[in-house]
Amino acid sequence: QVQLVESGGGLVQPGGSLRLSCAASGFPFGTYAMSWYRQNPGREREQVAAIGAGAGTYYADSVKGRFTISRDNAKNMVYLQMNSLKPEDTAVYYCNADRPGARDYWGQGTQVTVSA
């Protein structure tokens, strides 16, 4: 059974930091690209960052220089270190696993709220 379980969300003040974690199981993790997406009510889900099976990375312009994605293939984990958080970073953050030719998988999401 495939599972993606996010953790680490919460309430943080502007300028603060959070580290999101995603624990993966039930599929060959090391062969999948892993991404973090975020979504607010009434808006489309937005890809925030991605890390390929070969560890190449992608960041949305809105988070470049502030967020860092990483993965630990030995532990089947992917992380999103979020620094200098802004109120506009408030959203539900989702972990995604994707590989060409295969279906993709989603976690249940974790809420991040940036507010004073």
Detailed description of the structure:
The chain contains no helices and eleven strands. It is mainly β and 116 residues long. A hairpin with a 6-residue loop joins strand 9 (91-98) and strand 10. The model has no long low-confidence stretch (mean pLDDT 96).
Sheet having the most strands: 7 strands, mixed
User: For the terminal residues, how far apart are their CA atoms?
Assistant: 40 Å
Number of DSSP-assigned strands: 11
Number of helices: 0
Our Rg estimate from Cα atoms comes to 13 Å
Structural class: mainly beta
The string of secondary-structure elements, in order, is EEEEEEEEEEE
Shape: globular
Key attributes of the depicted protein:
mainly beta, 116 residues, four-stranded antiparallel sheet, 11 strands, seven-stranded mixed sheet
